[in-house]
Amino acid sequence: MWESFFGFKKTPFSDSPDTKQLFSSAAWQQVNARLEFLAQHHGVGLLTGEVGAGKSTAARVFTAALNPNLYKILYIHFSSGTALDLLRQIALTLDLQPAHFRGDLVRQIADAVVRLNQSKKQHPILICDEAHLLPHPALEQLPLLLNFDMDSSRYLTLLLIGQPLLRRTLSLQLHEALRQRIGTHYHLEGLTREELDAYLTQQLKAAGVTQPLFEDTARQGLYQATKGIPRKVNKLAVTALRLAAERKAPIVDDALLLDATSEAFL
Ligand SMILES: Nc1ncnc2c1ncn2[C@@H]1O[C@H](COP(=O)(O)OP(=O)(O)OP(=O)(O)O)[C@@H](O)[C@H]1O
Ligand SMILES: [Mg+2]
């Protein structure tokens, strides 16, 4: 096992990082500031970024830290299906028995949202992850949910998360009603070159290894191959460490990184 070869106490570069493994890049802090703002002021937020940049992780970590007595997280990971399916799924996250007709469903959801706010004093945050995959008619339903009352924007917070395509989709005339409601937007980029160095050190340390395992040239190669996108960094770093262990090499140099890059299939 490559982990024992390097003396790791646990596997570094995890797919589901724990608090010690979470890296607070400048962009990560910017996302958090916006999510904080959204939770405080409600409304609609948009979080976009390249594949693997950390969008879902940021939303998951942020919402996990919110007081569950004050917020109810409705997490939707909806990628296909009709507008009606989307509304049904939202109803289900609200523990409702979905009505058959669209108008009834919208009312049903709206009533539940108001009840949550007024009776339970819980504010719902609806998170639509992978929203770039939402068919147009489904996306068009969302303003209806924000519109059900004179002052409804304060009852439901909506966070749309998706790949860069989502920005283009939302720029269409068809989605103006939704676009106009977006109060905060952030586009999450990869780690900078300096942050990548700090990330590698942090990951190794959190897994129990303090000596550097990547030569300078290998770190440069890692940055070039991944542009600092965390999922790519993790995949390439693990591949490189595994190859190094196989070859009994105590450190990853640029030649080894090159081999790892073709194997990692980024
Ligand atoms: N701040 C961070 N600290 C440590 N690891 C991170 C961080 N952000 C992301 N990661 C790592 O990167 C991986 C990809 O993150 P995530 O799944 O959140 O990306 P995404 O932007 O939602 O990707 P997709 O577009 O495919 O949905 C995570 O599994 C996690 O291991
Ligand atoms: Mg994601």
Features:
Helicase, Ruva Protein, domain 3, 12% strand, elongated, 2 domains, binds magnesium ion, Rossmann fold, binds adenosine-5'-triphosphate, 266 residues, alpha/beta
Textual characterization of the structure:
The structure is a single chain. The protein is of the alpha/beta class and 266 residues long. The chain folds into 2 domains: 2-10 and 191-264, Helicase, Ruva Protein, domain 3 (Orthogonal Bundle), CATH 1.10.8; 26-188, P-loop containing nucleotide triphosphate hydrolases (Rossmann fold). The chain is built from 13 helices and 5 strands. The protein has helices spanning 2-6, 26-41, 55-64, 83-93, 102-118, 136-139, 142-145, 165-170, 176-181, 193-206, 216-226, 230-246, 254-264; strands at residues 44-49, 71-77, 123-129, 157-162, 182-188. A 5-stranded parallel β-sheet has the order 2-3-4-1-5, sandwiched between helices. The chain binds adenosine-5'-triphosphate (ATP) and magnesium ion (MG). Magnesium ion (MG) binds at residues 55-56, 129. Magnesium ion binds at residues 55-56, 129.
